[in-house]
């Protein structure tokens, strides 16, 4: 304060030709003494009389102070009656922002109400969800408890303990709180306490060796010097604290090093300070050290006045950390700038009635208060200073880390700051590499009731426990963790599937039987190979068409059957590739018609054998049908019925391509919906009926005595055909996705291959390997032998 006034008086720009004076009064951290000092300053006499002013020559312009909120409140109530300006540099209680109760109170320190939000931000920054809180039993402590509890719970945090420390704590109350802290799982304890009633708590905490906790303090006590014992410093080692921003006062350090009792000869405290700082006795200062001159001769060190202040340990004489000092400097300059504006007022343009101005040397307190509320200036450090409508300044605090060193010294290390005036997102900054936690650990302590759930797991509340204590349950299949609420999972849309961490829904991959994959290409190759093999047989029969084995049993039907089998092998290719509406309609109809044609041709061949044999038996009734050429009509008639069924199927409920979400987990399968399952079953059932009739007729005619009787081969081929398709039905129903298509293709290929091998392999064997058996001579000799027998 003295330095600020000296700067103002030496300035040519601020209040030129005006000298400011001051009067100091020590309230000794006592509300009663604060009130007494206020009345003394206002009235001008020690035994003050209310409403009487005995200041004959000069009246104080305003009051700077007090430190404690509990002292500033009664002062502000009295000064508010007269609208007498009061600027505090340390009273931070929220109630002082109420201009209805305290109309003339301003302060250069922030409203401590905002520290509650800063503490909550710190807890959120370090992910401390399970914490304890201890507050003083006063209005500020209880209000802080409510705010911090509400805001911390909004962030998903909980409190392991909430304790209220009495203003005058008993040993029982302190021990109860210490025991609760010791037993708690919470690693972090928040303290909204005043310094004077926190000392006993810290003493007991150190006595019980509680060194595994991180104490989070506020500006009310975080830089206090009232914890000199090493065991208390050990308890507080690694803790975090908020402190008023360490502002810069240019030239102040040099001023502090330059003070000397000779410069302030009338200040008795200067000599006492000198004696305590250098452990000597200042000559002539006997009235204050209570020592007689006779006793000073026995080895006592006298102060020479040549001692250097810059040689003193900073723990005793700190000239670097200007916390409240900076706020005092701003408070004095705020009053000076208000006076400067008053001095520069132009009559007729003033802020008062009829544009009048106030006299800087003779004005009313409310007139100075008017200017003081509106000051807006840059201090000597270049920082903008102004008051808001509540008489507060924007919050700007430092974050400190208590660090204890092996030699017993301790230090408050700056690790970050919060500046409410900074742009959004840049208000909060912490340098983690500077922090040393308790026991010298550099890892951030963990303070949670339950460990965070792994990815893809949701929180499940425990009955009777707080929300911070929970179990972790995995999200169900097809669900992801709700990014806005980690206690619930929600299902992904049908076309999406959770990623491996169950954090987001990704589009399901589309799957179908394609030519690019091994299964699709293999089936396509098999289909083509069998088609070429069938074509080779067809060519062989064309070349050997005049031979008996080809002519036997109607070679035209054999050609038709071979051509049908070729198309049967090729129709399986329609089942491979990305399904679409047209292909879904074509492939099943093509398959049904071609196989109906195959089975009809086989049925016709079987009936042909029966009719030919009957023609050689004059007593047979069937020989009357030889002239009608019934086999020629069987094939188109049977095939036409299947074609009619397919037309009805396509017109009533045709197959179509669909995206099957449920066929395979996490995959969209494009397959063909058969439309009407009843009509699809009718189509398959009709083929089954034809196959059953062919099998029955061939079985009955298998022992007919013909040279090239192929009914036994037809019987075996139809058994193979029936076995394949009977097996196909359960396999088709039990598979999903592209495997269903693969099963149908396999059934088509295997049944077609069975027909080809069973019916035509024996004939090819004779044609290629035993051509002597494929001649008229052989047939004639065999028939003659049969007649002899």
Automatic annotation (TrEMBL):
Mind telling me which residue stretches traverse the membrane in this protein? Answer: 519-543, 559-577, 589-614, 626-650, 678-701, 713-733, 745-768
Q: Which UniProt keywords apply?
A: Cell membrane, G-protein coupled receptor, Glycoprotein, Membrane, Receptor, Signal, Transducer, Transmembrane, Transmembrane helix
- State where the protein is found: Cell membrane
Q: Which Pfam families match?
A: 7tm_3 (PF00003), ANF_receptor (PF01094), NCD3G (PF07562)
Keyword flag Transmembrane helix: yes
**A Gene Ontology molecular function term of the record:** G protein-coupled receptor activity
Keyword hit for Cell inner membrane: no
User: What is this protein's name?
Assistant: Extracellular calcium-sensing receptor-like
Q: What species does this protein belong to?
A: Xenopus laevis (African clawed frog)
Supply the source organism's classification. Eukaryota, Metazoa, Chordata, Craniata, Vertebrata
| Gene, per the UniProt record | LOC121397643
